[in-house]
Amino acid sequence: MKHLLRGSLLTMTFWLALCVQAQIPQRPVPPRLVNDFAGLLTPAESYYLERSLVAFDDSTSNQICLVIVNDLQGMDVLDLAFKIGEQWQVGQKGFDNGLVLLIKTKTDTRGEVAIATGYGLEAVLTDAVCKRIIEEEILPLFRQDRYFEGIQAGLDRIKLIASGEYSYSSSEGDGVAGFVFFVVFIVFMIVFLALVSKKYKGKNGGSSGNKGGLSDLSKAIILSSMLGGRNRGSSWGGGSSSGGFGGFGGGRFGGGGAKGGW
Questions:
Q1: Residue 112 and residue 72 in contact, taking contact as beta carbons nearer than 8 Å
Q2: Averaged over 154-161, what is the pLDDT?
Q3: Does residue 101 contact residue 158 with C-beta atoms inside 8 Å?
Q4: Structural domain spans, the chain
């Protein structure tokens, strides 16, 4: 009886695994980063996005995979995005720097969007950041039936964050706080150097030989403070790739991401 029960459980597990597998779109052959199973995009739009994502993969090794479907087969949209990332192995092995942007089109049920991130991108594309990209970049355009523009806006923001050129936190409230701190620091430096300069001149009897020397140092320190940390990397231009997509690299997904609907 015990062996019969164990065999039944194994059989049930096997069939459940087959059912789940059947619900997930099969990895395309040859591999590609834009997979429109719903016919939402025109061929020209699909081609443009494919070339852009291939170029991003070539320049950063981060893989962004766009999947568009008409039906979620009863699955949660974020869970399906995660499973696609896992089974297709989006991202590079050892870096797990893959991302899946899944769109379920608006049919007789509402449209849904999900962003699922690999382990390696979870630190920069946090759940909260993914949610903001969906709510602020993608859905406003989707609600106007501007699907290509909404997809492009979302992908552009994802690419900037994934390449370290942009972050939501540093661009808004934290940016104001940083500017205030910068101004306070400069004022503090000016006052501090003025006091040091006065004390220094008093000890040296106002000697003209050192007159202006500390002032030049003060200017140098202040100028260095103003210019320090302002060096920025070059922006990714989104140009044509030198070749086609080479294939997914074996990335793993940890369940991070966000979803939304319209």
A1: yes
A2: 97
A3: yes
A4: 26-165+243-261, 171-227
